[in-house]
Amino acid sequence: MRKLTYFIACSIDGFIGDPSGDANAMMKFVDEEFRDFLMTEYPETISVEGRRILGLDASNRRFDTVVQGRSSYQLALDISITSPYGHMREYVASRTLTESPDPNVEMISDDLVGRIRELKAEEGELDVWLCGGSQIAGELMDEIDELIIKTYPMTYGSGMPMFGADAGITEFSLDSVRAFGNGALVRTYSRVR
């Protein structure tokens, strides 16, 4: 069975963006060391546009499928990108956007949990990346098998939490921590079942 991994950036006070969801303040921590780490270990998490800018032509290492919420997807649509992760299968959970603007992007408008269970049950060596969406992360808490949290050394004070829906108490075990020279951490946790 494939894993659902919530691979997300957050502040040290647990927010993935400011109250409007804007996470641009975190971008200053994506320095050369951190960028090299992402390009080597998680190249598929770099968008098509980012790959173009960086000249990155790398195979997917961990994920072949990405799931994101409507708000996360809207960030790409706002700059006229309809398939931000075209090097993977893309799914967008949305109750308002029912028709996909791109043939590579499948909309999930109902039974999100059921669709995620189907994706996890598929045969394959690569996993499913939950890219973003505070709300859908909360809705999918029971399906999340792994957390990879890129924590940047800053606080928002208030904003969009990592889990926007009532996710309840859930236990994870710490697998690894990697520290970077700029104060960023990447922590990996496995779900305790």
Summarize this structure briefly.
With 193 residues, this protein is an alpha/beta fold. It has helices at residues 32-41, 48-54, 70-77, 112-121, 134-139, and strands spanning 4-11, 15-17, 63-69, 89-93, 105-108, 127-132, 146-152, 160-161, 172-179, 185-191.
Indicate the topology.
Blueprint: E1 4-11, E2 15-17, H1 32-41, H2 48-54, E3 63-69, H3 70-77, E4 89-93, E5 105-108, H4 112-121, E6 127-132, H5 134-139, E7 146-152, E8 160-161, E9 172-179, E10 185-191
Describe it.
The chain is α/β, with parallel strands linked by helices. Helix content is 21%, strand content 30%. The strands form two sheets. An eight-stranded mixed sheet has the order 5-4-3-6-1-7-10-9. A hairpin with a 5-residue loop joins strand 9 (172-179) and strand 10. The two termini are 15 Å apart.
Going across the biggest sheet, name each strand in turn: 5-4-3-6-1-7-10-9
Largest β-sheet summary: 8 strands, mixed
Number of strands: 10
- Classify the secondary structure makeup into a structural class: alpha/beta
Task: Spell out the key features of this protein.
21% helix; 193 residues; alpha/beta; 30% strand; 5 helices; single chain; two-stranded antiparallel ribbon; 8-stranded mixed β-sheet; 10 strands
